[in-house]
Automatic annotation (TrEMBL):
Organism of origin: Curtobacterium luteum
Protein name: Uncharacterized membrane protein YbhN (UPF0104 family)
Membrane topology listed for this record: Multi-pass membrane protein
Compartments it resides in: Cell membrane
Broad class of where this protein is predominantly found: membrane
Residue ranges of the TM segments: 23-44, 59-83, 141-161, 173-203, 215-241, 253-273, 285-303
Family matches, as InterPro entries: L-PG_synthase/AglD (IPR022791)
Recorded GO CC terms: plasma membrane
Keywords: Cell membrane, Membrane, Transmembrane, Transmembrane helix
Superkingdom of source: Bacteria
């Protein structure tokens, strides 16, 4: 039997969807886009643009950082596909253009308060193309936990070996370690499945079927991919920092990557802040001030906030363009992109 409920199955040709489903199909995307626009406007308005007035850019390093950062986002798409396949989804071949655009749209959902928006966006939009909601939900939760754990692991290794971090408040370091340990515990397959099962019981939903449960190999494989992704993302932040502060030493690269990774992980844990706004900047400024003047660190924080939003917009554009010029083919049909539950 499939691990998919009837709600995960694409509409059968000739069978009209219920009125409620048709209404939701129109309302949900509108709400998503309206909220996204509202919080993007608030995000942009929160930027202290005066900090950028006297910045002298090294556009070569900006270009390098941007290419690496866009590459990191496509790396995330690859991890998403890896997890979906490991969870039993098939029929994804040929749907890369469509689902990459789905991922890019959902990625922008991080600017809406509530970490679940990113996951819910992928579940809603990808399910329209026939991918199982059960697998999308599990893969999304697994993605989030893996990304936080892997990024925290890299940050702790790079920061704690540097004597400069020994000047930080011991409670802050203890909090970092505790967050990492908590993520690792949650990623133990038995614990992960238990927590999802508990949530499903609270929501009065059907329990997960065995074929939708992640194995230890899936968790370890995803963790390894996300560690590589964290190095990629951190490298981009190093180069954008170098573009603003050319006096930054090459020997400080590991520290800056660690600082960016820690700020990213903590901001993902701060589910109340759109895009980690305020939290990411606070952690980043605190750590960067150990390798550069505090005034320069504040400028770097503002620059990386604006640059990161620009990269997200560029990623969305890069993902959208192929869908504009792609002719409708059989693989664009929702009935073709399916998982193992529909293959029979």
């Amino acid at each position: 039997m499939s691990g998919t409920t009837s709600s995960d199955t694409p509409e059968v040709e000739g069978k009209r969807p219920s009125k409620r489903r048709r209404v939701l199909g129109k309302v949900v995307p509108i709400v998503f886009y309206v909220l996204l626009v509202v919080f993007l406007v608030l995000y942009v308005r929160s930027v202290d643009w005066s900090q950028l007035a006297d910045v002298e850019w090294n556009w070569g390093w900006v270009a390098v950082a941007t290419v690496i950062s866009v590459g990191f986002r496509y790396w995330g798409v690859g991890i998403w596909f890896y997890l979906l396949r490991r969870l039993g989804a098939t029929g994804l071949k040929g749907s890369g253009v469509t689902l990459t655009y789905v991922y890019a749209k959902s990625w922008m959902g991080r600017y809406i308060p509530g970490a679940a928006t990113w996951i819910i966006g992928k579940v809603y939009f990808a399910s329209k193309h026939g991918v199982s909601k059960a697998r999308l939900g599990v893969s999304g939760l697994l993605e989030g936990a893996l990304q936080i754990a892997a990024t925290l692991a890299l940050a702790l290794v790079l920061l704690l070996v540097d004597p400069r971090t020994h000047d930080l408040d011991p409670w802050l370091i203890a909090l970092m370690v505790a967050a990492f340990v908590g993520c690792v515990v949650c990623l133990i397959p038995q614990v992960f499945v238990f927590l999802i099962g508990l949530a499903l019981r609270i929501l009065r939903r059907k329990p997960l079927e065995d074929d939708v449960r992640p194995s230890l190999g899936t968790v370890l494989g995803g963790a390894g991919l996300y560690v590589a992704g964290a190095i990629l993302s951190g490298s981009a932040y190093y180069f954008i920092t170098l573009a603003v502060y050319p006096s930054l030493k090459g020997t400080d690269a590991a520290f800056v990557i660690g600082a960016a990774s820690m700020a990213s992980a903590i901001s993902m844990l701060a589910v109340f802040a759109p895009g980690g706004l305020g939290v990411r900047e606070g952690v980043q400024a605190l750590l960067l001030s150990l390798v550069m003047p505090p005034s320069i660190a504040l400028v770097v924080v503002v620059v990386t906030r604006v640059w990161s939003l620009a990269v997200d917009a560029l990623f969305l554009l890069c993902a959208a363009v192929p869908t504009w010029f792609r002719r409708r083919t059989p693989t664009d049909d929702a009935s073709v992109v399916h998982d193992g539950a529909h293959a029979a």
